[in-house]
């Protein structure tokens, strides 16, 4: 048997490989002429958390209080986002698994450069699924050399943006693909990405609000389909469930404006789905019910439902915070009540 590869494909993938290698080289270049050092202050805190996880395990992080800071009370490190130190720990253990023995410090220094190259590679597929391969190639090239992103993923800048931008690209790619291919699995992967982003970076609010905005635009453009409802519900549901499990966000994150907008859009999509099904069954025509009146009444009921739920949660927030000191216990109880 023989394998035939078009010349265009060979040139395309060769160019993509050079772009990814170039993206990594641009970011790793500074450490070849200077001593590898963590830049700014926050990367040192993330590095300290990574060392603690390697010594005591992943579960121990959620009770980690550093007594050497803010004496005598100590600093609650577990209140920080855990996504970056967890990812860096897995990154370091992967090196050890393949027999590449580097220090924890060195792995934290090169981790941003690696994630910058990985995000560049993933950007190709996002551009490809939006338009075509050439679009993906140009998108990858721009991300590889754009100064703002290079600054945030240069070797030594060990901070939340290194994992956050990668997850945003992953979420968008999987979400778009789940709608185009009617794939619940890709929607689930997008949900895992949303959950990972909520555990990694405070900028998770941007993507959590961008998804309902995209869904609303599709509805207004009369491009609504059941695939949109299923993909959006799985993505947002899985993401918020994971994101509310960490102490940084807590269960009360579901009462924040960003999450209320995202979850409220699920109700709007369900209303459109119900209306489309009733319309197909001629239910509205037989009873002479105007569709505008039906949608308006349903939106009012949905709004009142959201207000009642938020009022109940706000009440329990006050009473539980007065009674329970541990944030982890508070998170579990409020989630069960909800």
Q: Compute the number of helices.
A: 14
Report the portion of residues in β strands: under 5%
Q: Rg to the nearest angstrom? A: 24 Å
* Coarse shape: flat
Q: Name the poorly predicted regions.
A: 317-338
Number of strands: 2
Described by its quaternary structure, the protein is single chain
Care to give the gist of this entry?
By secondary structure, this protein is mainly alpha-helical. It has helices spanning 7-28, 42-56, 83-97, 104-130, 133-145, 147-153, 161-181, 184-198, 204-220, 226-243, 257-280, 283-287, 291-323, 327-337, and strands spanning 65-66, 75-76.
Report on this model:
The protein has helices at 7-28, 42-56, 83-97, 104-130, 133-145, 147-153, 161-181, 184-198, 204-220, 226-243, 257-280, 283-287, 291-323, 327-337, and strands at 65-66, 75-76. By secondary structure, it is mainly alpha-helical. Strand 1 (65-66) and strand 2 (75-76) form a beta hairpin. The model is unreliable at 317-338 (pLDDT under 50).
Features:
338 residues; two-stranded antiparallel ribbon; mainly alpha; disordered C terminus; 14 helices; single chain
Write the layout of secondary structure elements.
Layout: H1 7-28, H2 42-56, E1 65-66, E2 75-76, H3 83-97, H4 104-130, H5 133-145, H6 147-153, H7 161-181, H8 184-198, H9 204-220, H10 226-243, H11 257-280, H12 283-287, H13 291-323, H14 327-337
Antiparallel strand pairs: 1-2
Helix pairs in contact: 1-4, 1-5, 2-3, 3-4, 4-5, 4-6, 4-7, 7-8, 7-10, 8-10, 9-11, 10-11, 11-13, 13-14
């Amino acid at each position: 048997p023989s394998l035939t590869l078009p010349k265009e494909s060979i040139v395309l993938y060769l160019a993509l490989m050079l772009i990814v290698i170039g993206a990594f080289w641009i970011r790793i270049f500074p450490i070849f002429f200077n001593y590898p050092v963590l830049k700014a202050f926050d990367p040192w805190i993330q590095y300290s958390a990574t060392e603690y996880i390697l010594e005591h395990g992943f579960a121990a992080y959620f009770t980690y209080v550093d007594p050497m800071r803010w004496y005598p009370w100590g600093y609650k490190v577990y209140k920080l986002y855990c996504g970056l130190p967890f990812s860096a720990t897995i990154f370091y253990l992967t090196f050890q698994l393949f027999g590449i023995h580097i220090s924890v410090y060195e792995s934290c220094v090169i981790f941003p450069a690696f994630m910058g190259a990985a995000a560049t590679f993933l950007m190709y597929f996002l551009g490809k699924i939006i338009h075509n391969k050439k679009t993906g190639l140009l998108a990858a090239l721009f991300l590889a050399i754009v100064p703002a992103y290079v600054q945030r993923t240069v070797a030594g800048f060990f901070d939340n943006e290194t994992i956050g931008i990668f997850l945003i690209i992953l979420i968008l790619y999987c979400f778009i693909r789940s709608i185009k291919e009617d794939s619940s699995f890709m929607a689930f992967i997008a949900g895992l990405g949303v959950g990972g982003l909520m555990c990694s970076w405070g900028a998770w609010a941007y993507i959590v609000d961008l998804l309902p905005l995209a869904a609303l635009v599709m509805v207004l453009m009369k491009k609504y389909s059941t695939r949109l409802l299923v993909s959006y519900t799985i993505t947002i549901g899985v993401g918020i469930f994971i994101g509310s499990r960490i102490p940084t966000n807590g269960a009360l994150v579901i009462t924040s404006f960003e999450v209320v907008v995202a979850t409220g859009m699920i109700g709007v999509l369900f209303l459109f789905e119900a209306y489309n099904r009733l319309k197909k069954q001629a239910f509205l025509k037989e009873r002479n019910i105007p569709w505008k009146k039906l949608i308006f009444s349903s939106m009012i009921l949905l709004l009142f439902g959201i207000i009642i739920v938020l009022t109940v949660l706000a009440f329990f927030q006050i009473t539980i915070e007065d009674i329970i000191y541990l944030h982890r216990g508070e998170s579990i109880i409020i989630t069960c009540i909800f």
